Amino acid sequence: MKYIFIFLAIFFSLSTTGQEVISLRELYAWGNTNYPLAQDAKLIHKIESLNLEAITRKRLPQLSLNAQAQYQSENIELQTGQISLEAPQDTYNAYVDINFNLYDGGLTRVRKQLQRNQSSVQYNQYKVQLRTVKKRINQLVFTITLSRKHVKIIQNTIDQLQENIDLAEAQVNNGTLLESELNKLKVRSLEAKKERTAIRANTKNYINLLEQLTGKSYEIHTQFDLPAELTISVSDSINRPENLLYDSQKKLLETQKNLLEAELMPKISLYGRGGIGNPNPLNFADFETSTYALGGIRLQWSFFDWGSNRKEKAKLEVDQQQIEVDRNLFNFELENDRLILQNELDKLVTQIKNSEQIVRLQNKILEQSKAQLDNDVITTSEYITQLNTSLNAQLQLELTNTQLLKARVGYLTLLGKL
Question: Are 118 and 103 in contact (CB under 8 A)?
Answer without folding.
Answer: no
